[in-house]
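Researcher: Structure prediction, please.
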Amino acid sequence: MIDSHCHLADEKFANDLEATIDRARTAGLERALVILAAGDEKEAAQARRVESLWSEVRVSIGVHPHTAHEFAGNPQGAADVVRQQLAATPSARAIGEIGLDYHYDFSPRDVQQAVFRAQIRLARELGFPVVIHTREADADTIAILREEGSGDLRGVLHCFTGDAALARAGLDMGFFISFAGIISFPKAGDLRDTAKQVPIDRLLAETDSPFLAPVPFRGKRNEPAYVTHVVAALASLHAVDTAELARRTTENFHQLFRP
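Model: Predicted structure follows.
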């Protein structure tokens, strides 16, 4: 079993990182993909600590749309920072999370789009998959992926909360769809209906921890061990054994990220 998207380098795990990793391993996790904000040395340092405790982890590095404004005058500069950190990080396997967020609009939308495009071009150049964040920006996100991807871009729509149309658009581009603990929330019926429509060979499971803890831990700090609840929920939706769903999502992770 694999947590395909978590933030173990977040300061919220600093005080009990070793215990958190022990719980993940005890829960049966093979590894996790740790998401890093490009240029954040504090996160990079904790990621090195994570790797010293759990050598199987891999990382993804990107400029999130929330911080795209830092490159307003030079969108290519975002890609340059990512490139440099990828080169210095042997465990890096993806670029992300990158994308668009029109819910908070912490960065101007045109800047978000320019920084997003620059990082997609870098991913294509280096042959890295992308980890996509999209919130209230689905049409623009898909349009940019189509325009810049040129049919050879690999990636995942992470922490999927969209509708069936967005899932179909992602699948048509060859992307994987990753679900987090939200699918266990009582009012997430529409999302569960969408998850049922995603073929098992295109599913990934994640926690997005420390955020979005699944039922029965909702409201508490999330952590990689809790991905077991996401896998169980997906298995129920697809009417397969939990162990089988865990095996299939693990295979999918390896296919995409080639760890």
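Model: The first strand starts at residue 2 and ends at 6.
Researcher: Thanks, that helps.
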